[in-house]
Specification:
The chain has about 180 residues and is mainly α. It contains six helices and two strands; from the N terminus they run H-H-H-E-E-H-H-H. The chain has helices spanning about 30-40, 50-55, 60-70, 135-145, 150-160, 165-175; strands spanning about 90, 100. The chain has a two-stranded antiparallel sheet with strand order 1-2. About 25% of the residues are buried.
Length: about 180
């Protein structure tokens, strides 16, 4: 069973079985994660509003991440498939909003990937594995939030007209491979 993307209280030990710190490990400081999940988590205790979300996550970067993962058909068990796995988060000092980083991209672009007609809001669906946990509830609220859904759609359109347009994408693949 995948762990939920949820607020579990203030005790850092409630998060250590799901989230693994790669920096400042000796500090065992999960206050940043706790603060973000207070807003973004399934059972958030701080109201999920645009004004509360923007200080804890880089909204545009998260939506771009989800759009790219969708366009690549990433079938791994990450945020884009409603699972709380196969992604990294980073929180900086100067900009303390969490950003997402790609991880485990071996099921993309037609190689055991999602079907080409997969839902562009796949992150908001219950995981394919039948697991009822994961991130899909949080992603559903986030991606369909009235202030954020238009941004996601705009980013998808922008990517399809630029980086993922056939001429640009074909040239990139040819150059890379």
């Amino acid at each position: 069973m995948r762990e939920r993307f949820d607020y579990r209280g203030e005790n850092p030990n409630a998060y250590t079985n799901t989230y693994f710190k790669e920096s400042n490990v000796s500090e065992n400081d999960f206050s940043d994660m706790v603060g973000m999940l207070r807003v973004m988590g399934v059972n958030n205790v701080t109201s999920f509003t645009t004004e509360n979300v923007r200080p804890v996550v880089n909204v545009e970067q998260w939506l771009r991440h989800l759009a790219v993962m969708n366009l690549m058909g990433n079938a791994e068990s990450g945020l884009n498939t409603g699972n709380n796995d196969d992604y990294y988060m980073y929180r900086g000092v100067n900009d303390p909003r969490f950003i997402l980083a790609y991880h485990d991209l071996d099921q993309v672009l037609g190689i055991d990937s999602m079907a080409s007609n997969s839902d562009i809001f796949r992150a908001t669906c219950c995981p394919v594995s039948g697991d009822s946990e994961g991130t899909w509830r949080s992603m559903d609220r986030f991606m369909h939030w009235p202030d954020f859904e238009p941004i996601y759609l705009r980013l998808l359109k922008e990517l399809l007209e630029t980086t993922f347009s056939q001429p640009q994408f074909d040239a990139l693949v040819d150059q890379t491979l």
